[in-house]
Amino acid sequence: MEDANARRGSRDLDMEIQAAHEEVDLTRFEAALRTPRAVHRSSCIRNVQVQPGLSLLATELRLTEPVLVESETFPAVCLSVVLNGYAHGKTPKLDTGFRPGQVWISSTNERVSTRKIILRAHPVHTVELIVTPQWFEFAEARFGDDPAFDAMHAAIERPTATRRRALDARLRQIAWAIQHPPGLGIVTALYLESRALDLLALLTAEFQGNTTYLLPANLTPLALDRIVAVQEQIDRDPALITTITALATEFAVSPSKLKQDFATAFGIGLGRYIQERRLLFGRELIEQHSVSVSEAAYRSGYTHPANFTAAFRRRFGHPPSAIRRFS
Predict the structure, then answer these.
(1) Cα 3–116–28 angle (5° rounding)?
(2) If you average pLDDT over every residue of the chain, what do you get?
(3) CB neighbours of 190 closer than 8 A, spacing ≥ 6?
(4) CB 71, CB 7: distance < 8 Å
C-alpha cells in the first residue's frame, strides 16, 4: 500500500506502469533505492491494471546488498502476500518490515512517508492487490448495497490500520501462480486478471468476516503441514529431489497421495513445481554466478543439458545461452 511515487533525495520519481501487463522498467524502481546497483538484472516488477483503480503488483527482487527503500502511503485498501524475503521497517509508529509467510490486510486514507531496509540474504517474492478510491467509484453501481463492499469502502476513509496473519495455503497457491503465470501475451494477461479477481474475492471476505473457506478442501492440518514442508524442501535445493517416489517415502506417504495433496494445496502439479524450481535455480546460476549452461543443467538436477535447454526455452521463451551472451 505504498505509493509508487518514491523519492531519491528530494526528487519525486514516477513508477507508474507504462502499460497494462507490461513489466516496469527496473531503472524506475532502482531510483527508489539508495543503492540502485544492488538490484540484480533478473529482478522483475509486474503491474497489471485489472479494472479502473484495481491493480495487481507482483515483485521478484534479487539484491547484491541491502537496500533502503523510501516511499509514501496513499489512500487504498491492500492485500499483501509475502512468499519470500525479509525487510526491516524504519518508519516510526508504522511497521513496514516483512518476512516470509505473511499476509497483510491494510487500509488508510493518509499519506505517510515510509522507509524500510530490504535484506539481500533471500530473494524477495511478494504479491499485492491494491484497491484505490477509483475502484469504489467504478464498482458502486454493482456492489453499492453490499455490506462487505461498504465496510471495505469505509476503511479507505479512516486512518491507517493493518492486520497481519500467517499465510494460508489458498493464498499461497494464488500468489505462487501469479509469480509464475503460464503462456504468453493475452493468455498471461487474462490469467493474471483472473487471479487478481480471486484475490479481490478473498480480500472482500476479510471485511465480511468470512475466511473459513480459505483453507484447501479435503486437507487435514497434518496433511497441510506435510505439504508445506515438502515445498520448503524442494525450494531449498530442487536438484536433490531425484524422484517423486523417493520424496514420498521420505515423508511417509504414498506418491499418489503426495501428488494429490500438493495439487490441492498449491493448485499446481508436484512434477511441474519441481521442474519450475529447477529452471529458476538454473537461471540464477547462469545470471548471478556466470556458470556454463551445462554446469547449470547438472547442478539443477538435469542429467542431460539438452533437456535443460529445451525446458528452459519452453518456460522463458529463449535458450539459456541467451542469458550468457548478455550477462
Answers:
(1) 50
(2) 80
(3) none
(4) yes
Q: How confident is the model at residue 54 (pLDDT cuts 50, 70, 90)?
A: very high
pLDDT tens by residue, 257-303: 999 888 877 767 899 889 988 998 898 888 878 899 999 999 999 99
Q: Which residues is 102 bridged to in the sheet?
A: 82, 166
Residues in the chain, overall count: 327
pTM above 0.85, yes or no: no
Identify whether the C-beta of residue 24 lies closer than 8 Å to the C-beta of residue 15: yes
Q: Which CATH superfamily is domain 2-214 in?
A: Jelly Rolls (2.60.120.10)
Residue 216's alpha-carbon distances to 53, 73, 264, in angstroms, are 30, 33, 6
What are 272's three cell numbers?
A: 511441474
CB–CB of 278/240 below 8 Å? Answer: no
- CA 294 to the chain's CA centroid: 29
Relative orientation angle of helices 270-289 and 221-236, to the nearest 10 degrees:
30
* 29 Cα distance to chain centroid: 16
Domain 221-326 has CATH 1.10.10.60: yes
